[in-house]
């Protein structure tokens, strides 16, 4: 990990790690989907399950990324990825991330054609049944997120008072170039995730005015492909704060400026959780968000529900709550 991979405190950006995770997943799933004779394809990222950042990675450490296919449905592949950091001076290794990603194979001849996935050989029958349950659960959650696709983040011309949503709201505009894209001419999922994390980090830093790090990423859903030449707008806004964590909603909209026949559309969405740290790397209290409008109050309550649900899942663990 080099200085340009990290923030001013020397911690590697969450977006950089997410990009590495996606690249590993894309390689193994594309390799599997082309393991039999037939139409050639490239695996496209459809969804990333909740990812927790278990331990920070620092400049000078070596990142080891390992990926394994754990389930395959007729048209999708589940990949589980582990990231380990290694201090090459001491030999110390630690697990920093675990993630689950879902890919679909798209034909090289017709990008709108989803091909069938070669079967996976399971060592135990229970593995297939457990994978099928995970597949059905993520499929249901993807359907539930589609209702938010019409939600729009309006630009803020006059930022409000500190600790309000409008004060920290941020956007980034990016022109999609060839280096961002796959063989199909569509954006790599990892590129999109890195940009999303960058915007979420700006929102968190503006709110806290301290060093901030990514604590976790809720499920990232990729609703539609982003073509080369599109202008994408990545918008982030604070939705909820607990005592020591912040939830930030990030929406990605694509504008196909060279194609008048297609309108602007929602390409991806996710919730990022950040924590505030002191110069010594210790957690700091987070300034409490002050929702002003009815929509902001509604999003705050929804964020509180997600926070309490995740906190309940973590009960019984000895590590401190975010």
UniProtKB/TrEMBL annotation:
It is found in: Cytoplasm. The lineage of its organism: Eukaryota, Metazoa, Chordata, Craniata, Vertebrata. Pathway: Lipid metabolism; fatty acid metabolism. Pfam families: 4HBT. InterPro entries: Cytosol_ACT, HOTDOG_ACOT, HotDog_dom_sf, Thioestr_dom. This is Cytosolic acyl coenzyme A thioester hydrolase. GO terms for molecular function: carboxylic ester hydrolase activity; long-chain fatty acyl-CoA hydrolase activity. It comes from the Eukaryota. It comes from Dipodomys ordii (Ord's kangaroo rat). Coiled coil: none annotated. SUPFAM superfamilies: Thioesterase/thiol ester dehydrase-isomerase. Its EC number is 3.1.2.2. Residues 1-109, 166-280 form the HotDog ACOT-type domain. GO terms for cellular component: cytosol. Homohexamer. Residues 293-322 are annotated as: Disordered. GO terms for biological process: acyl-CoA metabolic process; fatty acid catabolic process. Transmembrane segments: none annotated. The keyword Lipoprotein does not apply. The active site is at 7, 197. It catalyses: decanoyl-CoA + H2O = decanoate + CoA + H(+); (9Z)-octadecenoyl-CoA + H2O = (9Z)-octadecenoate + CoA + H(+); dodecanoyl-CoA + H2O = dodecanoate + CoA + H(+); hexadecanoyl-CoA + H2O = hexadecanoate + CoA + H(+). Catalyzes the hydrolysis of acyl-CoAs into free fatty acids and coenzyme A (CoASH), regulating their respective intracellular levels. Preferentially hydrolyzes palmitoyl-CoA, but has a broad specificity acting on other fatty acyl-CoAs with chain-lengths of C8-C18. May play an important physiological function in brain. Its main location: cytoplasm.
